[in-house]
Amino acid sequence: MDGRTVVVLGGGIGGLTAANELRRLLGPQHRVVLIERQREHRFAPSFLWLMTGDRRREQVTRELSTLVHTGVQLVHAEVQSIDPEHQAVVAGDKEHRYDALVVALGAELDPQSFPGYTDAVHGFFDLDSAERLAGALRTFGGGRVVVAVTSLPYTCPAAPYEAALLIEDH
């Protein structure tokens, strides 16, 4: 029997785990391709500890290629389209054919959709925002901190509660 190709879209926690597990479970005749636009893997569950100053950027990031198991083909490209009828994904300037597709692209943050957010708010759902919030907390002189969710869905249901507790402890 000829091998099959599994394409995994997204190199975050879900996509990376899926690609590595599929590689472990499938025989060597099968291909596992992981497509991700970023070269750096950012471990989002640790952003809250980055926010409080208990972690540093280099502790929560790794080169994605160092986390992919041997036998997983890593493609650095942005997904332009998915064609389920023809079982193909276009990423970068190349078409990738598949027998099975795993879509693990995660949530895309859109702070501009909430008027005033980018000028007045600190966030912790992305690496750069968590670092900026850490700086703000270092110089915070006291008062009230509001942890708010502006719309649903958001990436991690527990994160606002964890953030509030960690900020209070900080």
Characterize the structure shown:
Helix content is 29%, strand content 23%. It is elongated, with a radius of gyration of 19 Å. It has helices at 13-25, 47-51, 57-60, 117-120, 127-138, 159-169, and strands at 5-9, 31-36, 40-42, 61-63, 72-76, 79-83, 88-91, 94-97, 100-103. The strands form 3 sheets. A 4-stranded parallel β-sheet has the order 5-2-1-9, covered by helices on one side. A 3-stranded antiparallel β-sheet has the order 6-7-8, with no helix packed on it. A two-stranded antiparallel ribbon has the order 3-4.
- With strands numbered from the N-terminus, the spatial order across the biggest sheet is 5-2-1-9
Overall strand count: 9
**What Rg, in angstroms, do the CA atoms define?**
19 Å
| pLDDT averaged residue by residue | 92
Instruction: Give the overall form.
Output: elongated
Helix coverage percent of residues? 25-40%
Element pattern in H and E: EHEEHHEEEEEEHHH
Catalogue the unreliable spans.
none
Q: Note the beta-strand portion.
A: 15-25%
Largest sheet: 4 strands, parallel
Specify the structural class: alpha/beta
Count of separate DSSP helical elements = 6
Separation of the first and last Cα atoms: 58 Å
